## 1
Amino acid sequence: MKKIKGISSILGAAFLAMTLVACSESTTTEPVAVAAESTHVITETEVLEFQQSWGEGIVHIGEVFTSGGDYETAASEHINRFYGYEDMNTVLFKPTLAKEVRHRDTFESAMSYFIGGDISEDKGFAITPWTNVRWENEGVIIEGNQAVTMGVYYFTPGNGGEPVEVEYTFAYTKNNDGELKIVLHSSHLPFSATKAITEEEVLEFQQSWGEGIVHIGEVFTSGGDYEAAATEHINRFYGYDDMETVLFKPTLAKEVRHRGTFESALSYFVGGDIAEDKGFAITPWTDVRWENEGVQIEGNKAVTMGVYYFTPANGGEPVEVEYTFAFTKNNDGDLKITLHSSHLPFGN
């Protein structure tokens, strides 16, 4: 890690000159104020301890959430402790997973990012939850009561998965009470030219898609809002919002073979304006089992072909269906279906 101290700048020089002039023209009480100001100089140790505490704070919010405690208060305390919303005119905060509202320059918008709130894209970063935050500073620049760090931190998820790598830039200053505060926080996922898909992602995606179909049927059977369940399913798995075109040929579609819109896909899954649609997902089914003939991956695109088996809730034999799927990753790195072609086997 590089440490750089005492970097001169026009602003720093001007500030120093103003201080010297003030000292030369001051009364006997003014040097005391300048001496007090010198105690606000930031040290590298303070920066490192502050980073460690920030990470522990993120972990703590998740722990409180998991235990059913008042995680909103935990998040509020975290923001007030580490960010300068109360002390500074402006806090520049670009969270890792923010796109619709990229910059969070108010306490409320930061709160929404950490635990979810009024901003629809916010799922609650701090309540993921995480079990550890590890910092790797590329460098620390200190100039009086201001400091800047850049590097990579690693968030270990509570489900035991691999640490998530995030690039950061932070700027800190001390307030009038000598407390370190964040005035700039910019986080981004590492650059990826292709957002390459892995086979593991494809297999997990298929499993989740099948579970989603079963879930829609369960909601329908229990008298719940199965249309909302189907809407969530389509938005999660299909690229209608992200891609120019989704090619979807459902198994039991003939009058309207191809479903290139969200509405026509919803009709197929739960019934709707298309007369032939009886609601495939509300049959209902209790299980979907996949048998891939193969998985082909090229960068951020993947294709699978095979047979899946839908087990009906009435206890009948699994229904055999042949499929071809194509997937791609959107700009947020989410896997989406861009082609889905299903057919009953020849002779049926």
## 2
Amino acid sequence: MNCVVIPAYRAAASVLPVIAAIGDEIDLIVVVDDACPQGTGLAVSAQCADPRVVVLMHDENQGVGGAFLTGMRYALGRGADIIVKLDADGQMDPAQIPALIQAIASGTADYVKGDRFFFLTNAAAMPAVRMIGNLALSFMAKLSSGYWTVMDPTNGFFAIHGRVAELLPAERIAKRFFFETDLLHHLGLLRAKVVEFPMRAHYGDEVSNLNAGRVLLPFLGGHLRNTLRRILYRYFFRDVSLASLQLVFGLALFAFGFVFGLYHWLAAAEHEFVPTGTIMIAALTLLIGFQMLMAFLNYDISAAPREPLHPYLEPLSPKTGQETAPSTSTNVLVLAESDEPFGQRSQQQAKR
């Protein structure tokens, strides 16, 4: 079963056309109202007659990541094989969903995400501030996830295989604007295969809720934390290889050469030359350390997962005790905030 999850916040005017454009390849559409002040979920419930649609409503705002994870839990409970995230603002074309999920359906990928930078026309249409921010975040996401060929890590148009989704630690994934890149980090820890799908994006008059100044430091901190966690887990806990030694000795030699050279340069009296031997020691250790770090980086880039993970996992089966939705009407489920793992949460449910 294929499912689309639509996180909805201040999207009462745009979400209905998005739902109407979703094709027959999708069996279940889950709209998650993230405590929207416009009552987007209630508007969908009242105006949408599509029998595939289920509306889930948060009683507290949890962010786009929290809304998607709620929808993902529900979809997994219904036995979804492929789960697609689609934004409610109309920026993503639902007609591209069949191409997006093709790699997962054919068994060649675990996770597929849209790439807005593949087409130059997309780059030209993207607001300049958004483009610069995305490019900077792209490099940091490569470091923190290990997916060096992913060019658009912050893109929210993606699909994931249900068996891989069940392995994700939902309680540890960021719930707000750091969600997409943090999700990539956790997929990297699982060694899931990620591929990108060339997509065309439409930039209209939608207003982003992202405040760049407010999230800059949390983003930097999150990427630094994830980078350290990934390297420790990948190269020291899960496996120790030549690359592990290159990283350790490379960092040590580079740091020694830099500190040693800087100390003697600062300690030298004015008009006094630093001895040639001292310069050679600093330069050689700095260069050797740099070369070893470049060798580690080259290995890390080439070590991205090449085989999909989901064929080796047990098939999904619908969970007992999970909520189900009749196929003849749109349901509204009022959910309390939950950080429990997939398939193990409790909720409050009410039909309206």
## 3
Amino acid sequence: MEQISTITEFLETSGARLRFFDMGRRVDKISRDRFLQFEKTAIPYPFPLQQQAWFALLFQDKSSQQEPLIWFLRLPLDEQGKLLQAARDDFMHRLIERIGEKMQADSEGQQLESALQDNPYSFKPKDERMAIFHARISRLLNAPPSRFYAHAQHYFSGQPGWEQWSFVGYQGIADLAARLDQDGNETIVASAITVMPAQPLIALCHCLENETLPRQITQALLDRVDHELQQATTDPGLLAAAIRGSARPSAQRPQRELISRILTSPGGNHIEILTAVSGRAWEQLLDAEIRHLFLERLAENSAGQEAFNLCMADLLYLPGMRQPILATVRDPNRSSRLSSAIGALFQGVTGQ
């Protein structure tokens, strides 16, 4: 009999159905096979953040009679973005100590609920992240949205007045974003984006970043960006939110246009804008033109060399990003400013 060495295989011995979600860069589902490959160190973690894998593990009885149980875990990664096996083994040891080697069906739920007590690998997501996660889970499990959903939908229709945004529950906004294909929400949201105040728009975008956006909403975000860029003073928080909100477009061209227009604007070197690209819309940096523009603006970012170094380290750690980034860094046509920033980065790494 093959020895069980992964969290996935161990928990599946209970007969539970497992689902995995990234909780770091975005709230995004990870397939069982992909996660198991990660656990076996066959592949790096697909969405590393701060050199850790931040994920949620949802499991429920296959009969679906009981409420699903959710664990939030973070595990350290090595220099290649792969799981540190010593950390996984330590987690497994602590887990087995808590719930015993044999789980009985009548007490399994209680054992698992208390299994992470005082476990250093568990974490509690921020309230906003929890709202988004619950919205996605309720949709996945065909459960109704929260009691805040109807109020959020009413607000985004514009009927109570845009100044009433402070009365809208964040959970309702998350539910709305997770159900764009229901109840006419796509049209409601697209219409609201172009006219609503900045604060509720930013909250909406932070929820939309986890969803695959229909073209109508991506275009609405692009229109709002164009309007913002025409103002005498632009709001970097709003522009960064638009990048985050359009992070998963069904149509790539409008989002690339959105990022390009923001980066080429006078305020396109603001660090909040640049980290929105690298942290939430990094896939667009696979486009050579966007990548070159991004690195040039990063070299003159508003927070200085340290921010450049941190952002570069984060990008180089992402699976599939190292070679494209290095190719642009080595481009002989790069600006002198980018050359200087790269030189300072490598000088800091080598200590020379």
